[in-house]
Amino acid sequence: MHARGLVVVLLVALMLAGLPVVVWLDLTNLAEANLRRQASDVNSVMTSVRTYYANNVVGRVLASPGSTQVTHDYESTPGAIPIPATLSLELGHVMSDQQQNIVYRFVSDYPFAKRTPHTLDDFEKNSLAALRANSSEHLVDVSWSTFTDRVRLISPVVMGAACVNCHNSHPESPKRDWKVGDVRGIQEVTITQAIGGNILSFKYLLAYFVLMGACGATFIGLQHRQAATIRGINRELETANDFLASLSMKISRYLSPQIYKSIFSGQKDVTIHTERKKLTIFFSDIMDFTATTERLQPEQITLLLNEYFTEMSAVALRHGGTIDKFVGDAMLIFFGDPESNGEAEDARACVRMALDMQHRLAELCVKWRNAGTEHPFRVRMGINSGFCNVGNFGSTDRMDYTIIGAEANLAARLQSIAEPGRIMISYETYALVRDMVVAHAQPPITMKGITRQIVPYLITSTLGAAGEKSLIFSEHMTGLDLYLDPSMVDSSHSEHVCTVLKNALKALEGSGSRA
Q1: Is residue 407 part of a domain?
Q2: How far apart are CA 141 and CA 122, in angstroms?
Q3: Which residues pair with 482 in a beta bridge?
Q4: What pLDDT does 212 receive?
Q5: Which of 7, 218, 272, 433 is most buried (CB neighbours < 10 A)?
Q6: 241 lies in some domain
Q7: What pLDDT is stored for residue 414 in this prediction?
Q8: 467: Cα within 13 Å, side-chain hemisphere
Q9: Are the C-beta atoms of 302 and 428 separated by less than 8 Å?
Q10: What share of the chain has pLDDT > 90, as a percent?
Q11: For the residues 148-174, what does the mean pLDDT come to?
Q12: Minimum mean pLDDT among 121-130, 176-185, 486-495, 497-506: which range?
């Protein structure tokens, strides 16, 4: 945008700068046309005067000889009158004296014997030769400089009857065979005029151009100032946007991605508002976490707990779960808000998440034991499906997006009765996922706030696409880290897994017999 604006400003400036040039060219053309007209008018006047004088004055005097003489040096002869050529020269001198920009020349290459020969330039010589070939032409030479124009107009001096009689009989004439119609010489009018002299003819136009130029310059200045202001605002906005982007990224660490997205996209308002929805709630807890913290240093337990939460959160987000909160070593995750794929699919996603968490936790236990942790985390998991109040709870100054209800408490209770490495679900959840897992009913339990008896279901295996059962073996204790899901073992590795298990069984039996 900045480059485009600069191009526009340059084009406007170029167009404004071109206006004086255009006006100057028009002035030059106008001056040239005016000078041509003036030269033609002067030439016509001089020719008319000379012709009239030759025919009606000199001609009548010569036709009736008397005391009046017609001579070129009439000033020294009492009672004499000038010949037409001398009259033309005298009129030219008078005109040049009164009009400094007009020069009149009456020249010939056949001057009288007692006169100084005329000096002819190339244009005059060429014009004389051309006019003797064709006396009907008027030849023009135009020249101009930066501030002046000059027009030279040459017309032929044609011999009339009176002129022929005079020149053929005059003793000082260099030629005695003139005929009527011959070109004796040339009559030249040169007019010079400053182009600036015509500027005042365009005073209103020039005033308009000056006004428009001032307006254009003001507009360009305002545009430049506005552009600079906009650039400054854009820089401030970029800085503010970078700060807000950084701030929003920091804030996102404290919110579930679904909540963060719904708030910043405007789908949800940050107001105290809740709604009742059927959700699938997941609750997990690390068994004997207090005892574990007593065996480890605070720095070590912090590293282990952060890694555990990071890996479990990644699994939850991968399956679309909304992470509600971390309560000490416990995690609360729910499916069905703010995004839902339907009650059944939400429950299946939650169970798949729990199974993947068990698998990932088994890998972490191996890693932690290899790193020197004697008693890695052992996690219990509980899942329940039911209606809860979900939304923003708190005050106008501080609120939390969470769920409240007995069904959420039931998920926590289910995990508390599960064995480490096991997943305990309610019947409501089992009814939605019975096509993907095998679960066995456990002894009923009661819970405060729920009047009915709760029948927990322990997931023991998964079902394949064809309905075949796949058992899951998960045990974690000192000297044993076992997680086996046969459905996930590649057929090419099955024999190797069997060999490893047989060798482990033999080693265990051998250890028992020695004991």
Answers
A1: yes
A2: 12
A3: 475
A4: 79
A5: 433
A6: no
A7: 94
A8: 0
A9: no
A10: 23
A11: 82
A12: 486-495
- Helices within 319-386 (DSSP H only): 343-370
CATH number of the domain bearing residue 472: 3.30.70.1230
**CB contact set of 222 (below 8 Å; sequence gap of 6+):** none
Measured in degrees and rounded to the nearest 5, phi and psi for residue 424 equal -110, 130
Q: Count structural domains, the chain.
A: 2
Q: Omega into 84 within 30° of 0, i.e. cis? A: no
Question: Which of these, 487, 473, 438, 441, lies nearest to 459 by C-alpha position?
Answer: 438
Coil vs helix vs strand at 317: helix
Neighbours of 12 (CB within 10 A): 15
Residues 310, 456: one domain? Answer: yes
How far the first Cα of the chain sits from its last, in Å, is: 85
Q: Give bridge partners of residue 151 from the DSSP assignment.
A: 142, 191
SS (HEC) of 427-449: HHHHHHHCCCEEEEECCCEEECC
Task: Write the CB contacts of 504 (distance below 8 Å, at least 6 apart in sequence).
Answer: none
Residue with tokens 């365009």, as numbered in its chain: 202
Q: Which amino acid is at 346?
A: D
Name the residue range of residue 105's domain. 25-201
User: How many other C-beta atoms lie within 10 A of the C-beta of residue 488?
Assistant: 12
| Residue range 433-489, pLDDT digits in tens | 998 999 999 999 887 767 778 899 999 888 865 556 666 666 666 666 677 777 667
